[in-house]
Design a protein that fits this description.
The structure holds two protein chains of two kinds. Chain A is mainly α. Chain A has eleven helices and no strands. In chain B, a hairpin with a 2-residue loop joins strand 1 and strand 2. Chain B folds into two domains: 221 residues, 3-Layer(aba) Sandwich (Rossmann fold), CATH 3.40.50; 71 residues, Alpha-Beta Plaits. In chain B, helix 9 crosses helix 10. Classes of the chains: A mainly alpha, B alpha/beta.
């Protein structure tokens, strides 16, 4: 990455920050949504939940919600990129001698910033609810790193899907699909409680790998045990996002370059 | 690029979208420091041409050079030398005018301080200095277009593309944009302007290239094109259809028109004239002297429709604006 790319990407990131400054309510809503999910599952549904191998459901749920929030970030990225590309201003960017990748890199920096901040808020709410991390500080930071790594993969998937969808209306259709994919995991309930074939899918969901890995690292219940995927969660939590990035980052960049066809 | 080299050279440019051919071998040469209008109906290929020249779109065939650089081989060199004002304002609607200009200045790698200084200059020059922190989304159409123009002038481009710059503007907004373009041209900028309005080409352009079906079908000064049509047209509606033939000979004498057409059903006669004002005053005077009462007298400029009818032998496909000047 050249200096010009970095400078232009930073200019594009600043553009996004200026948008935030103008829409504080929208930013707040995006931060509040995962908190709401966490509170609803903990207090509306949590009473009926049991943790595989025993333990407090909140200890199981909070890390799961962290992972889910990273995956749901996909929706925001998709929407933002389609809105960006449908705006007239993109023509000006493309007719200027700026780095071609700056629009996408700027978007990714902005979304990572937002997700990191959102994760901090969620950790704060989790702690207030009584969730604790029992492992060391290093393990805790590694867990947060794995979460952001998953988010980074979702970011490039989102940029690609957003460009493929083309129009903001099409994004809604894709967004609906994120929900079943998000719930088909071990985020809220153990895959052991699902029908066998669904459970098998849920175990291999990339999000399940990250959720299991961070539960281990935080030293809470629900980590490890049962299947190969669960036993190698940290490996999968590293490799799944890597594979997604390896596929979708080049696809997204190529697709952006093809806007001129 | 030497001073005598053309600012824009287009040779045999072709572009097809899926099954629709937008450009079918367009040729165009624009000398430096001139205003060249590309005139044509919707779908003639005007916007496609500008988007290729502004490096936004890849042509399927042919060659395009801007400021001496090939648009495909050296797009960044082209981008440093052009400004683009599209049909839709290409500015960030959620930011203020100043934020927009500063952002674009940074993206041109001016650095923060120079970008800010240039933004101040341009806001002042385009009468937008008082807009403060208001988001561009809340600007009027004319203000937005002026900001768009300001954004495309950050680098003092040698060549400016204006793609239907006044479409959708009210007359006041149109005048604002025209004045801005005129002052640029005084500064030596080469302007390529697309328009559907003959009047706009007439007002702003040194030369006009008429395109249809993705090809240039005529090229010349606005006066040359109008001369080919035989100039403006005067039309007189009489109170009494019985006086039509007498009136026709009076008007023919007064305007020295070669031919005067009559339409008894509508009590109307019409003739091509070269000198608008003289034709009008002479007609009014001669009719009064002959005691013939006119219900209405209209001077019409040739419309785009008529230019097309004349050049292609078929009417323009899209709706073309027809302007009438009633007296």
């Amino acid at each position: 990455m050249t200096t010009a790319t970095l400078i232009d990407s930073w200019t594009m990131t600043r553009r996004g920050l200026a948008h935030w400054a103008r829409q504080p309510v929208q930013v707040a809503v995006q931060l509040v949504f995962p908190v709401m999910m966490l509170l609803m599952f903990a207090y509306f549904l949590g009473g009926g939940m049991t943790v595989p191998g025993g333990g407090d459901y909140k200890e199981y749920l909070v890390p799961g919600t962290f992972a889910l929030t990273m995956v749901f970030g996909l929706e925001g990225t998709m929407l933002a990129i389609t809105q960006d590309l449908n705006k007239g201003v993109i023509d000006r960017f493309r007719s200027m001698p700026m780095a071609r990748s700056a629009v996408l890199v700027g978007r990714s920096m902005l979304d990572m910033l937002q997700s990191a901040f959102g994760l901090l808020v969620l950790v704060g709410v989790g702690l207030a609810m009584g969730w604790r991390w029992h492992g060391g500080l290093g393990d805790g930071l590694l867990a947060l790193g794995l979460l952001l790594w998953l988010r980074f993969a979702m970011l490039w998937l989102g940029i690609f899907l957003g460009m493929a969808a083309g129009r903001p209306e099409m994004v809604q259709a894709v967004q609906i699909l994120v929900w079943p994919l998000g719930f088909l995991s071990n985020v809220f309930a153990s895959p052991e409680t699902m029908p066998d074939w669904l459970g098998a899918l849920a175990v291999w969901n990339p999000m399940s790998a990250t959720a299991t890995a961070i539960r281990e690292l935080f030293g809470g219940p629900g980590g490890g045990g049962g299947s190969w995927a669960a036993d190698h969660a940290q490996l999968l939590a590293t490799c799944w996002p890597l594979a997604l990035i390896a596929v979708f980052l080049p696809l997204a960049v190529r697709r952006y370059g093809r806007l001129s066809r | 690029m030497a001073d005598s080299d053309p600012a824009i050279v287009v040779e045999g440019l072709r572009k097809t979208y899926r099954d629709k051919q937008a450009l079918a071998g367009l040729d165009l040469t624009v000398p430096q420091g001139t205003v060249h209008a590309v005139l044509g109906p919707n779908g003639a290929g005007k916007t496609t041409c500008v988007r290729i020249l502004a490096t936004l779109l890849r042509p399927d065939g042919g060659r395009a050079e801007v400021a001496g650089y090939d648009v495909l081989r050296d797009p960044d060199q082209v981008r440093y030398r052009i400004g683009l004002v599209g049909q839709h304002a290409a500015v960030d609607e959620e930011l203020s005018g100043r934020q927009n200009l500063e952002m674009f200045g940074r993206l041109y790698h001016l650095g923060g301080r120079r970008a800010a200084a240039r933004a101040d200059e341009l806001l002042e020059r385009f009468g937008l200095a008082e807009t403060g922190t208001k988001a561009v989304g809340r600007y009027s159409g004319g203000m937005r277009r002026r900001l768009d123009l300001a954004a495309s002038l950050i680098m003092r481009p040698r060549i400016l593309f204006l793609d239907e710059p006044t479409t959708g503007l009210d007359p006041r907004g149109r005048t604002e944009v025209w004045n801005a373009v005129r002052s640029l041209v005084d500064g030596g900028t080469t302007v390529l302007l697309t328009t559907q309005y003959l009047e706009e080409a007439d007002q702003l352009a040194d030369r006009v290239c008429v395109i249809d079906g993705g090809r240039a079908i005529a090229d010349g000064t606005a006066d040359e094109l109008k001369a080919r049509l035989g100039g403006d047209r005067i039309e007189v509606v009489l109170r009494d259809a019985g006086q039509l033939s007498a009136a026709a000979s009076v008007v023919g004498m007064a305007t020295r028109a070669a031919e005067v057409g009559t339409d008894p059903d509508r009590r109307r006669l019409g003739a091509r004239v070269t000198d608008r004002v003289a034709a009008l005053t002479e007609t009014v005077r001669a009719l009064a002297a002959a005691g013939i009462e006119a219900e209405d007298i209209v001077l019409r400029r040739p419309t785009l429709d008529e230019v097309f009818l004349h050049l292609t032998g078929e009417p323009v496909r899209a709706d073309a604006a027809e302007e009438e000047i009633s007296v």
